From TrEMBL, chains A, B:
Coiled coil: none annotated. Residues 2-97 form the Fumarylacetoacetase N-terminal domain. GO terms for molecular function: fumarylacetoacetase activity; metal ion binding. Pathway: Amino-acid degradation; L-phenylalanine degradation; acetoacetate and fumarate from L-phenylalanine: step 6/6. This is fumarylacetoacetase. It comes from Spirosoma foliorum. Its cofactor is Mg(2+); Ca(2+). The lineage of its organism: Bacteria, Pseudomonadati, Bacteroidota, Cytophagia, Cytophagales.
Length: 390, 390
């Protein structure tokens, strides 16, 4: 996984995570290990991954192959310079890995959409008629996306109390378990990306927590969608898993019925099996994992999201984030938000004998974990964590 | 008004519009006219206004005062260098004036909101219960905002035909008459901006056309708001009117009943009287002005928009665009979109004896004009124009 890190007096730079160490790619480049690859070493000396991403997938593969050769056992290449190129993670500070021009949030978790529909429109079909025809999405706020670990301030805002609008700190602060795609290639304004080409536009995948203030959101969102209920913060993992390294996690998605229009039709395994987990650590007391889900529960796949996003000519740029929406499973223990886990506050979650939660309390830390299995060995996506304060 | 322009072999730079000429502020700075103001001349040699905006209002006022002295009659300062500093507008190319980190679109035109409500929810109150309690808004797409004059490609997308989803070129392409605020100062994430401070965060005002595909929008927008119906393009004027120069256009806004919550309460004249006009030039035939409106018809004022946007801690950045939403008046000739002017296509607009429009045809050029009066003299906001093609 790639990220941006600094240590000691070294300025932010591109790193590759290797277990508990981070390989300093600027130093590797300056030591000459990439010389024959014709890669400009300054792309590694940047505070965001965007220039590195812009090198393109052939360059990324060449770099990755070179690094694999260098770190593979039996190759002495890095042995003389081990302490120069491998920095222990305890010494580093991490940064938001990309400059994000635009952020889009999909609604591709069908169990989440059904649960929300059941709660808020109990007398009608939980899914609206468009849900299975197109990947519903909205534009979110890019400026307030922060790197994992950044404390999250409880937003104040306007919401209803006994039917009257009041102003105050949100009383229904929530997390959302999502994946974020990091866009790896630009398309020109006016040109669309087909489902066949779409995966080539993904640089990598991260964990993403789209913090939500449900009381603010519920009062404001008609008719134009979420605004202040979402835009106070979203948390992105410091680590981006390159899309190339996800091949062995591919699985088939759920059957799509009705069959979508041709521009959204995909073949083959376009979903990915990542185990996902959400854990809550209260200010006092034990950390409890409150949700276990899987990325394969998404209704729409990544290729469909990208093809739909661009079908009208909208231009994506390197570093843009496309988040999936909340990934819930079909059973209560797999719900990816407190809104669902506490069923809109009706069923408090018991963290211990004395501690319950409907929504988040100040001091609560939420951590999302994600992992897959490669030949039986667990491969971690980077965690994303944040602690609530007022 | 400030903008970014180039000419001959000169790279994009900051200009000040003076009637039919553009004052080249990089050249003015290099000639030493700002030396005693301690302004770094490189802020004028940029392809966007962001660095210039970041100088702050005291610097902008000092620059403006110096320029006023230099160009006022009787001062010979520029007479020797007239052709170096004044570039005729026929010679220049204009650019998007700012790098836009995030774009927000409000819904502050109450007559537009009422018209849309009457069309789409004919049996209930045209305004939803939140409309007069808070300035409804949504996040839009920043990457697809283009400078005035850029051709606009008709988007393809998914919409309903006789109740079934189909894919094709939008059959309900529309414009929206809006103003755009350009943000002039950053607020830190987690900190709000009060209504009293809010106007100090506005660098300037522009005309803004939020192109909309009504058929796509109508099918996709529940429950999370507009997405592909809007994100294929928006057009921003090349010229930004500094907020400081709007003082004489201040007027009182409409009475707000109910009185909003304290964080949204403003006093004094916080609305602005700009005459607004929309003209349609078909590929063949005469240009017809189809709408005449005024910015004073907005329900919510700029200070309320900014205070609301940030009340939960959302951070605004220099160059962000906050658009007002469609500014319609209360009478049919003042409606700021074809959706309203043709009443959802039911009442075609007669452009000539043989030409009608419900929505836009390929080859149509839409131009928004705006102006105010200062001591009886018309002061123009920059136009914004775009031609539809497929």
């Amino acid at each position: 996984m790639y990220g941006i890190f600094s240590y000691d007096i070294a300025s932010p730079r591109v790193g590759l995570k290797q277990d508990d160490y981070i390989l300093d790619l600027e130093v590797v480049a300056l030591l000459g290990y990439f010389n024959d690859l014709k890669i400009d070493p300054t792309v590694f000396a940047q505070p965001v991954l965007n220039d590195f991403i812009a090198l393109g997938k052939p360059a990324h593969r060449a770099i990755r192959q070179r690094l694999n050769e260098l770190v593979s056992s039996g190759t002495p290449a890095f042995s003389d310079v081990h302490d120069q190129v491998f920095i222990h993670e305890s010494r580093v500070q991490m940064y938001l890995p990309v400059h994000i021009g635009d952020y889009t949030d999909f609604y591709a978790g069908i169990h989440h959409a059904e649960n929300v529909g059941r709660m808020f429109r109990p007398t009608s079909d939980p899914l609206l008629p468009n849900y299975k025809q197109l990947p519903v999405a909205y534009h979110g706020r890019a400026s307030s996306i922060v790197v994992s670990g950044t404390p999250i301030r409880r937003p104040k805002g306007q919401f209803l109390h006994e039917g009257k609008p009041v102003f105050g700190p949100s009383e229904a602060l929530d997390f959302e378990l999502e994946l974020g795609l990091i866009i790896g290639k630009n398309n020109p304004l006016g040109e669309s990306i087909s489902v066949e080409e779409a995966e080539d536009y993904i640089f990598g995948v991260t964990l993403f927590n789209d913090w939500s203030a449900r009381d603010i959101q519920r009062w404001e969102y008609q008719p134009l969608g979420p605004f202040l209920g979402k835009n106070f913060a979203s948390s992105l993992s410091a680590w981006v898993m390159p899309f190339d390294e996800l091949e062995s996690f591919r699985v088939a998605g759920p059957p799509q019925d009705p069959i979508p229009l041709p521009y959204l039709q995909t073949t083959g395994e376009k979903h990915f099996s990542f185990e996902l987990e959400v854990c809550l650590q209260p200010a006092e007391g034990e950390k409890i994992c409150i949700c276990r889900s899987n990325a394969r529960y998404l209704y729409w796949n990544f290729a469909q999201m990208i093809a739909h996003h661009t079908v009208g000519g909208c231009n994506l740029n390197i570093g843009d984030v496309l988040a999936t929406g909340t990934i819930s499973g079909s059973t209560p223990g797999s719900y990816g938000s407190l809104l669902e886990l506490s069923w809109n506050g009706e069923r408090p979650l018991h963290l211990s004998e004395t501690t319950t939660r409907t929504f988040l309390a100040d001091g609560d830390t939420i951590t999302l974990h994600g992992w897959g299995f490669l030949n039986g060995v667990r491969v971690d996506l980077g965690d994303v964590t944040g602690t609530i304060y007022s």
